[in-house]
Write a structure and sequence with these properties.
- The protein has a single domain, classed as Rossmann fold, CATH 3.40.50.
- 23% of the residues lie in helices and 33% in strands.
- The protein has an eight-stranded mixed β-sheet. Strands 1-2-3-4 form a four-stranded antiparallel β-sheet, with helices on one face. A two-stranded antiparallel sheet has the order 9-10.
- β9 and β10 form a beta hairpin.
- It is globular.
């Protein structure tokens, strides 16, 4: 593995490394992003964030809000397999956004350097609910370990849900299943707004502690993943690259 770029800024150490055709971003030693333009689907955690988009027909995922850009691997995946007409990416770290453009080839999107809470509040104040997909992937790092930037409490979850159309969904990354189960998504006042029985799902990867939550006001059917997802991710494909445990959250 070769370090092709590094920088020290505001007490943080950033590195971009290559491993074969893959490009990787590390911040303070924490592995944030990987992208391989020759072989995008490798079975990684970022693909676990992509997979829920295929609960919907790809042509229905037109407008996407990504909270937490990192190096932009998820943006590249969405552009490759869903082709949304608009992606708004928000990250509080200007170096991450610069790296996403320079080393990960992120383009044709709107990237905003800001606190995601302020952006969500502004969109809520404007009375908009314009997105088909909102991805909450807000992770920072403490003592070399990745952790959520702030808790997904009831107010946060309600605000994010308010930004998706009735047929849309929120995908939220948690450090563990326990963290998801203790979040605002599991409070009765919020869970009652989701489709009964099939409006909440979890996805987990055997190589990571993370638990991905998927939340929608309209029912989501596992069979649609098999209908729409690419072969390398498709849960109906025995030789798929992505090993994902997909469960309805009731």
């Amino acid at each position: 593995m070769a370090v092709i770029w590094q920088q020290q800024r505001n007490g943080n150490h950033y590195e971009v490394r290559t491993h074969g055709a893959s490009v990787r971003l590390y911040t303070n030693g924490v592995f944030h992003t990987q992208w391989n333009p020759r072989d995008p689907l490798k079975g990684s955690l970022w693909e676990l964030l992509l997979l829920p988009a295929f609960f919907l027909p790809p042509e229905q995922v037109k407008r996407v809000l990504l909270l937490g850009v990192g190096g932009g691997a998820l943006i590249r995946l969405l552009q490759t397999y869903c082709s949304p007409s608009q992606i708004l990416g928000v990250d509080i770290d200007p170096v991450h956004l610069s790296v996403a453009r320079r080393f990960f080839g992120v383009g044709d999107v709107e990237l905003v350097c800001a606190d995601a809470r302020a952006v969500v509040a502004d969109l809520t104040t404007d009375g908009e609910a314009p997105f088909d997909l909102v991805v909450d992937d807000l992770f920072g790092h403490v003592d070399g370990e990745a952790q959520r930037a702030f808790a997904a409490d009831r107010d946060w979850c309600e605000a994010v849900l308010g930004l998706v159309r009735p047929e849309g969904m929120v995908v939220s990354n948690f450090a563990s299943r326990r963290e998801l189960l203790e979040s605002g998504w599991r409070m009765p006042a919020l869970s009652s707004k989701l489709a009964p029985a099939s409006g909440s799902w979890t996805l987990e990867h055997p190589d990571y502690e993370n638990c991905i939550g998927v939340f929608s006001r309209t029912p989501l059917d596992r069979s649609d993943l098999k209908l729409h997802a690419p072969t390398a991710l498709n849960p109906g494909n025995p030789s798929r690259k992505l090993s994902a445990r997909i469960r309805s959250l009731r």
